[in-house]
Write a structure and sequence with these properties.
89 residues; alpha/beta; four-stranded parallel β-sheet; 40% helix; 25% strand; globular
Length: 89
Amino acid sequence: MRTAIVTIAHGRGHHLCRQLDGMGRSTRPPDIHVIVAVDDPELAEIVTATGSPAYVVACNDGAGPLPIAAARNTGAQAALHRGAEVLVF
């Protein structure tokens, strides 16, 4: 069963680095890790710099409150597209 972790992030690069580090130390890493960068293009640079195999997808709203539901749905769709059978948010 292919498991995916979906992480939604905005302005929390340090927290994302810590999550990636922890997942890198895991004895059972997820099959797929999708990071939804909500109006935060710098997160893709962080993922690249860490060497993480995570996929970064953008969710750009540009105005108003953070689009959490849209980000969740974007991440779920990306994970399912990559073959995930179980989603963990």
